[in-house]
Design a protein that fits this description.
By secondary structure, the chain is α+β, with helices and mostly antiparallel strands. The chain is about 35% helix and about 15% strand. It is built from 1 helix and 2 strands, in the order ββα.
Length: about 45
C-alpha cells in the first residue's frame, strides 16, 4: 500500500507470489512496482 496525503490517493497492490525459498523479493519486480505506484499516487 502506498498513500499520498497531498493528493488523497491510495494505491494498493495485492498478489500471491510463488515462494521459492528466497527470503528477499525479486528487486526486478518490486522496484518497478513501487515506482509505478508512486507515480499513480502523485497524479491529481
Amino acid at each position: 500500500m502506498l498513500a499520498n496525503p497531498d493528493t488523497g490517493i491510495v494505491v494498493v497492490y495485492f498478489s500471491v507470489l510463488e515462494n521459492t525459498g528466497d527470503p528477499d523479493p525479486d528487486p526486478k519486480f518490486q522496484g518497478p512496482l513501487v515506482k509505478m505506484m508512486a507515480e499513480l499516487a502523485a497524479e491529481v
